[in-house]
Amino acid sequence: MPIKDKKIKSVTTPLLDKVNNPNDLKFLKLEDLDQLSSELRSDMIDIVSKTGGHLGAGLGVVELAIAIHYVFDTPDDRLIWDVGHQAYPHKILTNRRHKMSTLRKYRGLSGFTKRTESIFDPFGAGHSSTSISAALGMAVARDKLGKSNNVIAVIGDGAMSAGMAYEAINNAGALKTNLLIILNDNDMSIAPAVGALSNYLSNVVSSRPFNNVREIAKQMVNLFPKEIGETAKRAESIARNFLGNAEGTIFSQMGMNYLGPIDGHDVKSMVKILQNLKNGSQDKPILLHVVTEKGRGHPFSKGSHEKYHAVSEFNVITGDTVKSTSNAPTYTNVFAETLCKIAEKDKKVLAVTAAMPSGTGLNKFAEKFQDRFYDVGIAEQHAVTFAAGMASEGLKPFVAIYSTFLQRAYDQVVHDVVIQNLPVRFMLDRAGYVGADGATHAGSFDLAYLCCLPNVVVMAPSDEAELAKMVMTASKYSDGPIFCRYPRGEGEGVDFTDIVQDVKIGKGRIIKKGKDLAILALGTRVGSALKVADHLLQYNLKITVADARFAKPIDTQLIEKLWNEHQKLIIIEEGSAGGFSSHCLHLLSSKDLLNKHDKEIKCLTMPDNFQDHASQKEQLATAGLDTDGLIKVVSKMISLSNLKNKSITN
Predict the structure, then answer these.
(1) What is the pTM of this model?
(2) How far does CA 372 lie from the centroid of its chain?
(3) pLDDT at 223 over 60
(4) Which phi and psi angles does 205 have, rounded to 5°?
(5) Which of 22, 73, 87, 432 could cross-link to 574 by cystine, CB 3.0-4.6 Å?
(6) How confident is the model at residue 641 (pLDDT cuts 50, 70, 90)?
(7) Does residue 393 carry a catalytic annotation?
(8) 296, 372, 408, 488: which is the annotated catalytic residue?
(9) How many CA atoms are closer than 13 Å to the CA of 165, on its beta-carbon side?
């Protein structure tokens, strides 16, 4: 018997729960996409609150990601995200929502697009400004193979500051192939009225061919409100202001059809425009200018200049980030504070960064010395030669760049700085393993690609005090280029605030003396070597630990001393093969010291592969460069089987 007078409350399934892949989007009504956008944005905030990651860029492209996948037929239609920071909504929509809790974790999802992760990621992107080049290559391949799929590149306004993007645009305009470039402009605002007008214009232009701006103006006269479309002349003026087809933008001058700017959070308008572009026949590339708000809907109470580009785990209710339990400062902050102290006394000191002011700590420098701080955008090549020009005139530029990003400017380092022997000071943050950002961001190769260059100085501090000394050393050094590499994360807890002395160029130091075995460590590995030496005392083993300090010039006297006074020597560095230890071996070989049969030497470097994202601790363990890995090597070299399975705290 039915129960009367009792209402049964229906539970509505969230739209996002119905979307496992882009095909599921096709069954939604256009009117549903606003709700889906809201759900996707909330889902992303919840995910990143638990995993940490690049929050701001993804929040800004929620509607854009939905619109693209709603209209186009991915993965057959190729979609390339640049730089990859924007790709979290894309990952959620492409059958990876159930794995998002593993984001940036060991054996989990990458924080960037990755070809081996999903068929919806046709091109990996860990560094910026590559999407247009890759997309153009795919478009040419499509044409050569007789296919008809679409190719879409989404590039941020920051990434457009790099020269590579303009090289690609120039080539695309000349080739005149069907290619859609979406410029995600999240560094400007767009008034609602202007946004609506531009959305309408872009929809009109994308829906049918027009011979000239006057034809568009006629449409405006008939369809726009009277105060806007009062005269053809007024309508024509507005059309010229908003449409690059009127030869008003650099993009149209470079052979592209330009549309926009349009409101990147008006998902319905974007869908209509993208549908027009998909269905139309294009005789040359199109650049669609979309304006978004980076960090849109973020849960934090305070504003941020960088709109929460990257965040650690946080409380989704309060917005408070999870704080580290360590009181040790980060190496980044040690560099920034030391440089600020030096700059107070030395007016020739300047700072240059390539779109990473807070990542490199130079935002603190900028607050105190605004007239001596230069953020050149994502333009590492320019940053290096820009600094070379300053140095040639007697100034003291400090260029703070992540180790992996300096690779983008290697030609400029060689030709514009090193060959001319200019005293540019390079501070390489994130040297070695970087954790969750994975292989694209690891500072694996700087020792190999720098130590082979003549007349350079390459330093690596073992703790905060050593870094402060090396920043001071760099400020005083004027005989040529000088580089200092230091890791991501917190230091050893060593006081650095009263550091005033510098370090003698090319001289290392012996920290602990022993007789059974010697460990020559560079940079971050010194701390691990000391822990191993302390641990081995309980086995009555006395280990010599030396801090190389310099990867170049190497301390030849120190290396020869360690080799001559010990039967066994381990050289350890957090860098690829071909770096510091290779130069040490070359030294010993050149002096014919390696032919002594009662001697043994072992070099520990990063393995010859690309390590995926994980914690720094996990990456070091996998590479055998942590304390446990060092213990295993020592046990084999001195034949102590009872050590092989021993583990000590890192």
Answers:
(1) 0.83
(2) 25
(3) no
(4) -65, -40
(5) 432
(6) low
(7) no
(8) 408
(9) 25
